[in-house]
Structure formats: structure tokens, C-alpha cells
Design goal:
heterodimer, A: mainly alpha, B: mainly alpha, flat
Chain lengths: 310, 308
């Protein structure tokens, strides 16, 4: 009797030891996989910077693309990207924030708001190239905007709209109810409550969302290829600021364009090694822009969070 | 005295009426912004169907679905979508074979084993990796991964689906890991404690309690990964070659639906030509494929949802 009990106990101990071994083994496997993935990506990024290193410099940034690899640069690409981002931000910010305010502060729960919510969720999952097809059919031909900076900016604005909406809603939701109720108690209308009390507290979250959205848009290549970005553009769009009255012109909105990712794509698909170095350099700069935007977003989030004490 | 008070009351109520009217107008403006999302969805479907309808006037649905060649830009044009679909599915399969196991292991590790500090350091990095432009990953696939694979597999062509698929897989690992980790962290603590109390180890708890409990969230992460792999464009356009071939062999070059759309767009086809319309037909198929996976995902998550 006693021997069977002892042998059962021994078996349990053995099983437990084995299971604990498995536990340790998994920790090692998990760490290995994690560091293998992150390490591989880090190696790839470092190699990209290394390959492009020979091309970094003022000339590269201030030159137009050229048939000679060593004279080619990214001037038209980064100017194009900046202008597109400007249009995208200008459209996505007000529309996204307004939609989020509607859904969060105004809408009552019914089938109609349900439809809007489902649409926002689904749009986030639509492949980006499909936005390109939408823009090609709608903006380029139906609205007649042509293959222009305006079309590209609007396309990317639609693309990042779900990101801006979701981020804004989250930061609106984070504002305590007590703040709203205090304002209502003093006789403020819904808009006054939103504008004067809720929005100021959620500015940080909204800006973070916008910048994260833009950092996604800046790298998007497929949709703007679809609407017809050209890869060889050796001119700049007309300047938005003129010397004569009214000092602003909107010619540039209609201009043809290229952008950073397009330029990189064009160079990477050439067999010539020298162009591949250009591609790596453009890629490294694009990557730096994206990471910088993300860093700014994180910094803003941190700063605003620190300032608010409910 | 009382007269000035009543004037004041009248003034106040006039201003209140004005403010309430302003509120109503503003609500309409906000609603209009909300409707942009609905409008976008409707416009996507409408444009795809409308332009494809011209395409299907030329090409019968039967030919579209059964022909094994896709050469819309040649003189002797064939319009069989199968080669593009096979390319898309092959790349997606390779990507998922990388992303699902690795992503799940990282998610389990981060959620159940990692210390607070490791998790708080790794999570932002994973999210940051999601922002890397896909054209950069295309560069990796063509100029770094393919030369490496060619050393392992002699005779591997310079353009192939394997390297594109592997890189897309690597690209979605952070995504699957991050969303999966969120799902597992949402499993309540008492379920883990119950399991520990029965003498289970961490690994047993993770695999038999937390993973099943988080299954609906994990499935959602996988579905998002699949959608991204199917819709991924630049990596395949750069690294997988641009010849539509009906094959499921990842070591061969082939074209995906998305790469075909890019190829045509680069060529600047005239508006209204059959080539122009064919990209909308291809886009429609792409949308339907992502839709099918999303519907499967929807039912999976509903079927396995655990309510706590």
C-alpha cells in the first residue's frame, strides 16, 4: 500500500519536473523567436542604411531624378510628398475629427449609427490599392481632378480617415463624464460642451492619431501609383506662395507629381547597382521620416498626458 | 426695474434659441462628416462594379473564371483570372506559414512569460514596425532575401514568390503578435489562477486556458494578417516578378492581383480601354477575396467568443 502511494508520488514529481522543463524551454523558444524576428529586421534596416550611405548628402536631396545614377536626387520626390501630406492632413483632420465627434458625442445608438460604425471598421481593412482604384475612377476621371497632387492627397486622406476617427474617439472617450455634466449644468449646449471642454482635453490624442495616420500615408505607394504618379519628374509644382496679390495660388494642386516611395520603387526595379544604392538611400530617408513622425506622436501623447490631472 | 429684467430674459431666450439653432446646424455638419465613411464604402463598390461591367461586356464570366491564361495587354488576349488568383494565394500561404506560428509564439511569450519591462519595451517597437513603408520591405525581398535564398536553393530565379511571401510574413509578424497579445491579456486573471491552483504550469495554462479563452481575438488577428497579405502590393510587385503564371510553386515567379494592377497603372493605359477596365475587374476579385476571409473571420470570432 505504502509503496504504491510512494510510486505515485514519484510519478507526479517526475511529471512536474518534466512540465517545468517544458516551461523553461518555451521561455527560451519565445525569446529566440522574438529576437530572431526583431534582429532580422534590424539587420535589414542597417543594411539599407549601409547600402545607401554613399549617396547621402546635400546634392542627393537637392537634385532632380536623372538618367545618370550618380547625379540623380530626390528633390521632386520629397517636395511632392510634402505637398500631398499637406492636402491629406488638411482634409483628414477636420473630416475625421467631425465624424468622431458625431459618433462619440451626438449619435444615439440606433441602426443608422451602427451602419456608420461598421463602415469605419471595414474601411480600415480594405487593401490600400483598392483606394487607388476608387480614386482613379472617382477623383481622376469622374471629378476631373486629373493625375494630380489634389487627387493623391484626397486618396490618402480617405485611406487614413479610419485611423484619425478611431484615435479621436478614444481620446474623446477618455474625458470624464463629470466635465461634460458640469458644463451642461451651467447651461451650455452640446456644441459648447464639446468645443470648450471636451475637445481641448483631447487635442493630444487627436494630434497623435493624425500624425500616426500621416506616417502611414507617407509610405503608401500602391494607391498613388494607381492614380498615375510619374516616376520621372524633373520639375517642381508651381509654388503655393506667389510674389503678387493674393500671394497664394492653387496651381500646384493640379500639378503632376512624384513621391518618395514612388521614386524608391522606380530605382529598385532597375538592374543597375548604382540606382539600387539610390533606392536604398531614398528608402533610408523615407524610413527616417516615418520613424520621426512616430516619435513626435509618442512625444505629444506623453506631454499631454502629463499635463492633465483630472 | 421689472421692465429691464424682462428685456434681459427676452434677450437671454433669444440667445438660447440662436445657440440651439446653431447646435442643430453643427450636428448636421458633423453627421455629414460621419457619412463620408459610408459614402467611401458605397463609392468603392460602385466604381468597381461599374467599371467591371464594361469589362464583362467583352469577356464572359465563364472565360474569366476558367481560362488559364491572363494576357489582357497582348494581341491574342486571354482573360482568365486564375493565374492571378493562384499567385495571390501562394504568396499569402507562404506569408501565413511564417507569420502565424511566429506571431503566436511571440504573443504567448509577451502575454504570459515576459516581465513587465520587456513587454513595455517590445510592444511599442512592434507597433513602430507596423509603420514601415511596404516599398522598403520590397527592397529587402528583392535585393537581400532573394540573393540569400539563391545560395540555399540553387537555380532560384531572381523574381520568385518565396522571397516575397517570406518578407510579407516577416512584415505581419509584429502585427499578429501585437493584436494577439492584446487578446490574451484580455483573458481575466482568475482563469489563470484557477488553472495554477489545479497544479498547471505556466505553459499549460497558456496553451490550455489562455489561448482557447482568447481564441476569438487570436482569430481576428489572423484574419487581419490574411487580409494584409492578400492586399499587399509593393513587395510582390517588386520581388515576385510580373508574369501571370498558373502555379502554386513558390519558387517560381508569378504575378498577384495587386501586382497586376500596379503593372497596368505604370503603363498609363488610355481611359476606357479594356486594359484599363481589367484592373477594376481584378480589384473586384481582390475585394471579394478579402470579403470572404473577413466573413469567415466574423463567424469564427462569433462562434468561439467567450463571455466573461
Amino acid at each position: 500500500m505504502a509503496t504504491t502511494a510512494e510510486s505515485t508520488l514519484a510519478e507526479i514529481r517526475k511529471g512536474l519536473a518534466w512540465r517545468k522543463q517544458l516551461d523553461k524551454a518555451f521561455v527560451i523558444v519565445g525569446l529566440l523567436v522574438l529576437f530572431a524576428c526583431l534582429g532580422l529586421l534590424a539587420v535589414l534596416f542597417l543594411d539599407l542604411v549601409h547600402q545607401g550611405a554613399s549617396r547621402f548628402g546635400w546634392d542627393f536631396v537637392m537634385s532632380f531624378p536623372s538618367r545618370k545614377a550618380e547625379r540623380a536626387g530626390i528633390l521632386s520626390a520629397w517636395v511632392g510628398t510634402s505637398l500631398i501630406m499637406f492636402v491629406t492632413a488638411l482634409v483628414a483632420l477636420p473630416v475625421g475629427v467631425a465624424a468622431a465627434i458625431y459618433l462619440e458625442e451626438y449619435a444615439t445608438k440606433n441602426w443608422f449609427t451602427g451602419i456608420i460604425e461598421i463602415n469605419v471598421t471595414n474601411l480600415a481593412g480594405v487593401p490600400s490599392i483598392v483606394y487607388g482604384l476608387l480614386a482613379l475612377g472617382l477623383f481622376v476621371y469622374t471629378f476631373g481632378f486629373g493625375q494630380s497632387i489634389l487627387s493623391a492627397g484626397l486618396t490618402l486622406a480617405l485611406l487614413i480617415l479610419p485611423i484619425v476617427i478611431v484615435a479621436t474617439r478614444e481620446s474623446l472617450r477618455a474625458v470624464p463624464k463629470a466635465i461634460r455634466e458640469a458644463a451642461y449644468g451651467l447651461g451650455a449646449t452640446r456644441w459648447e460642451v464639446t468645443k470648450d471642454h471636451v475637445l481641448p482635453y483631447s487635442t493630444g490624442g487627436i494630434l497623435t492619431g493624425l500624425i500616426l495616420g500621416l506616417s502611414r500615408a507617407i509610405g503608401e505607394t500602391a494607391p498613388i501609383i494607381t492614380i498615375g504618379a510619374l516616376s520621372f519628374i524633373a520639375f517642381l509644382p508651381p509654388s503655393p506662395v506667389g510674389s503678387e496679390f493674393p500671394f497664394l495660388n492653387f496651381e500646384w494642386l493640379r500639378s503632376g507629381f512624384t513621391a518618395m516611395p514612388i521614386q524608391m520603387f522606380n530605382w529598385v526595379s532597375r538592374p543597375d547597382q548604382a540606382f539600387q544604392a539610390n533606392s536604398a538611400a531614398a528608402g533610408a530617408i523615407l524610413l527616417a521620416m516615418t520613424l520621426l513622425m512616430n516619435a513626435v506622436a509618442i512625444w505629444i501623447r506623453y506631454r499631454f498626458r502629463k499635463k492633465i490631472n483630472w | 426695474m421689472s421692465q429691464s429684467a424682462s428685456i434681459q430674459v427676452r434677450k437671454r431666450s433669444a440667445s438660447l434659441r440662436y445657440r440651439k439653432n446653431r447646435d442643430r446646424i453643427i450636428e448636421l455638419v458633423l453627421l455629414a462628416a460621419g457619412l463620408v465613411a459610408v459614402f467611401t464604402t458605397v463609392a468603392i463598390v460602385a466604381i468597381l462594379v461599374y467599371e467591371s461591367s464594361f469589362f464583362f461586356e467583352h469577356v464572359s464570366i465563364k472565360e474569366f473564371l476558367t481560362d488559364t491564361m491572363w494576357t489582357p495587354l497582348f494581341d491574342r488576349a486571354h482573360y482568365g483570372i486564375l493565374p492571378l488568383v493562384s499567385g495571390t494565394l501562394t504568396v499569402t500561404m507562404v506569408a501565413l506559414l511564417v507569420a502565424i506560428p511566429l506571431g503566436t509564439i511571440i504573443a504567448i511569450y509577451l502575454s504570459e512569460f515576459a516581465t513587465h519591462r520587456v513587454r513595455e519595451t517590445v510592444k511599442p517597437i512592434l507597433e513602430l514596425l507596423g509603420a514601415v513603408p511596404t516599398v522598403v520591405y520590397g527592397y529587402f525581398a528583392l535585393l537581400m532575401v532573394t540573393p540569400f535564398l539563391q545560395k540555399l536553393i540553387p537555380g532560384l530565379p531572381g523574381f520568385n514568390m518565396l522571397s516575397a511571401g517570406l518578407v510579407i510574413g516577416l512584415m505581419i509578424v509584429p502585427y499578429v503578435a501585437s493584436v494577439g497579445e492584446d487578446a490574451m491579456r484580455a483573458v481575466p486573471r482568475y482563469m489563470r489562477e484557477g488553472s495554477y491552483a489545479m497544479g498547471a504550469t505556466r505553459l499549460q495554462t497558456a496553451l490550455r486556458v489562455v489561448v482557447p479563452g482568447a481564441f476569438s481575438g487570436l482569430a481576428a488577428a489572423y484574419i487581419l494578417g490574411i487580409s494584409r497579405a492578400i492586399g499587399e502590393t509593393m513587395v510582390v510587385a517588386i520581388a515576385a516578378g510580373m508574369q501571370p503564371t498558373l502555379t502554386f510553386n513558390p519558387t517560381e515567379p508569378a504575378e498577384t492581383i495587386t501586382a497586376y494592377i500596379v503593372q497596368v497603372s505604370l503603363g498609363d493605359l488610355p481611359h476606357g480601354s479594356i486594359g484599363y477596365q481589367s484592373i477594376f475587374a481584378a480589384g473586384l476579385v481582390l475585394m471579394l477575396m478579402t470579403l470572404v476571409f473577413n466573413v469567415i473571420g466574423f463567424f469564427l470570432t462569433r462562434r468561439f467568443r467567450e463571455a466573461y
